[in-house]
Specification:
Layout: H1 2-23, E1 40-46, E2 49-58, E3 68-72, H2 83-91, E4 95-99, H3 116-129, E5 135-140, H4 142-153, E6 158-164, H5 181-188, H6 193-204, H7 213-221, H8 228-244, E7 258-263, H9 277-282, H10 286-296, E8 301-305, H11 312-315, H12 317-326
Parallel strand pairs: 3-4, 3-5, 5-6, 6-7, 7-8
Antiparallel strand pairs: 1-2, 2-4
Helix pairs in contact: 3-4, 5-8, 6-7
Length: 328
């Protein structure tokens, strides 16, 4: 009888754990993730596939100034983390467009050749469709590479280039060992909420706060999805895109006003896990990389933040937003 009741208790525990896990499960297009504003979809046909690009298009809440800003998210994120930036920009009169890049967020996750040139072209098409002639471009992390590529390809479309702790300030393939997309895919398949949290704590933030957990709940929640292998495959393909398509050699070719916003404690390296501890210590040093990059860009300005890591608009929102709006 004791064994019977023990079996029932264990079964009940397993069912509860299973239900808790399912409650944390997200689809790979984040249907249940609430974005700060209404999401629309822009249709794209590429490589024989019909796909869609999610985006927010937010009208000014303050007196309209006739200007637009487009925000490009980082590799591990989507438009959901831009809420406070959108509100700050719309309050001073900007129309704000916030895409989820193809392969990210609520957008399609196709198996295609991922290219910053292609992503930039799709963003230009989106802006053209919306009737936007010129825009301020703000890119964070991977979005910084994309924003730079956009400004290089479409300087006539770019009013100002704003880079928030962009990656790609180093050429990763010169010091990070090469792995194939398939090898990276196998690594991505091992991702868990705990591994995400550990990486964010070690590279992105100087001090972990409970309010950052929502970032982990999204990046970790998709790992429970039955479709997670597709997410992981696309993550591996975009890792290869970053590794193989550096922009660091072209900063001197930028012809638009540029401002860098740098959290000096950032230690982000794409492929960090492939490096020894000693190698990690000499790369990803944004307190040096920020200044070096600003020196390469004609007329660039740099605003640095003490005691801040990879995501200033989340870690030090007030200070960042004051600096951002003051730079427009």
């Amino acid at each position: 009888m004791k064994r019977f009741f023990l079996l029932i208790a264990v079964s009940f525990l397993i069912i509860n754990q299973s239900n808790a896990q399912k409650a944390d499960t997200l689809s790979i297009t984040l249907e249940s993730v609430k974005y700060p504003f209404a999401v629309k979809f822009f249709p794209i046909h590429t490589e024989g596939q019909d796909i869609k690009m999610a985006y927010m298009d937010v009208a000014p809440t303050g007196t309209p100034n006739g200007k637009t800003a487009i925000l490009f998210h980082g590799k591990n994120f989507g438009g959901y983390y831009w809420g406070n930036v959108i509100k700050a920009l719309t309050a001073i009169g900007y129309r704000v467009v916030v895409p989820d890049q193809i392969g990210f967020g609520k957008s399609s996750k196709p198996f295609i050749h991922y290219s910053f040139h292609q992503l930039a072209s799709w963003n230009k098409r989106l802006l053209d469709t919306l009737g936007i002639q010129k825009t301020v471009v703000l890119g964070h992390s991977m979005g910084g590479i994309l924003a730079t590529r956009f400004a290089l390809m479409f300087p006539e479309k770019t009013e100002k280039l704003l880079l928030e702790n962009p990656i790609g300030l180093e050429d990763y393939k010169t010091f990070v060992p090469y792995v194939t997309t398939e090898q990276q895919y196998q690594t991505e398949l091992k991702t868990t909420a705990e591994s995400v949290r550990k990486y964010y704590q070690g590279s992105y933030f100087t001090y972990w706060k409970p309010e950052y957990e929502y970032l982990v709940s999204i990046a970790g929640g998709v790992t429970y999805s039955a479709d997670y292998p597709r997410w992981a495959k696309v993550a591996a393909m975009t890792f290869t895109m970053i590794y193989e398509q550096p922009v660091v050699y072209e900063f001197q070719n930028l012809k638009v006003p540029t401002v860098l916003f740098i959290g000096k404690e950032d230690k982000t390296i794409v492929g960090k896990g492939l490096l020894s501890v000693d190698q990690q210590a000499i790369h990803g040093q944004y307190r040096l990389l920020g200044k070096q990059t600003a020196a390469k860009i004609p007329g660039a300005k740099i605003i640095e933040f003490e005691a801040c890591g990879h995501i200033p608009h989340i870690e030090i929102p007030t200070e960042f937003l004051v600096a951002l709006t003051g730079s427009l």
